């Protein structure tokens, strides 16, 4: 299967965070590619990647970067595809620098920014974008959401049982 999602990052040091996006796509059996593409360190290659992405068959780009994280925004400026930005936290500033570098895009150049280190949600959001035009994938996303619902309900049940054991505990669910 040829990749429909491009997962790119400013450095291979971002992979421990970005891996969660790949895992989410694996769960939905969505084909993706992974690469290092840095706006700062390899600007010409970055522009080429963004310009060619749609013609190569990609439908969504997930771009993660840390610090002065210009990669997601720069990619969004050269591709018509949806770009999801992942702020990668570095040693200093707890990812606030990455978040603010990605989230405040000028009007006309959107980047869908997820939370700091929120690569799993980036993968899930990419799956939802693809599911909008894919009934089968949409069904799997619904199943996934039901599973989340069931898990949360189960957690509530366990918590109430535990609280009842200590003399307290009540809830609206049964
Ligand atoms: N933010 C960017 C960009 C960019 O935005 O083009 N290129 C690399 N980087 C970031 O620099 C950090 C440190 O990289 P190194 O670990 O290679 O020194 C990484 O988080 C990377 O995403």
TrEMBL record:
Ranges of Gly residues composition bias in the record: 165-174
Binding-site positions, substrate: 11, 14, 41
Alphabetized SUPFAM superfamilies for the sequence: N5-CAIR mutase (phosphoribosylaminoimidazole carboxylase, PurE)
Family in the record: Belongs to the AIR carboxylase family. Class I subfamily.
Domain PurE: 3-152
Organism: Streptomyces cinereospinus
Biological or metabolic pathway of the protein: Purine metabolism; IMP biosynthesis via de novo pathway; 5-amino-1-(5-phospho-D-ribosyl)imidazole-4-carboxylate from 5-amino-1-(5-phospho-D-ribosyl)imidazole (N5-CAIR route): step 2/2
InterPro entries linked: PurE_ClassI, PurE_dom, PurE_prokaryotes
Encoding gene, per UniProt annotation: purE
Reaction it catalyzes: 5-carboxyamino-1-(5-phospho-D-ribosyl)imidazole + H(+) = 5-amino-1-(5-phospho-D-ribosyl)imidazole-4-carboxylate
Enzyme class: isomerase
Keywords: Isomerase, Lyase, Purine biosynthesis
EC number: 5.4.99.18
NCBIfam families to which the protein is assigned, alphabetical: purE (TIGR01162)
Name assigned to this protein: N5-carboxyaminoimidazole ribonucleotide mutase
GO molecular function, one term: 5-(carboxyamino)imidazole ribonucleotide mutase activity
Segments of this protein annotated with the region Disordered: 153-174
Chain's role: Catalyzes the conversion of N5-carboxyaminoimidazole ribonucleotide (N5-CAIR) to 4-carboxy-5-aminoimidazole ribonucleotide (CAIR).
Lineage top rank: taxon: Bacteria
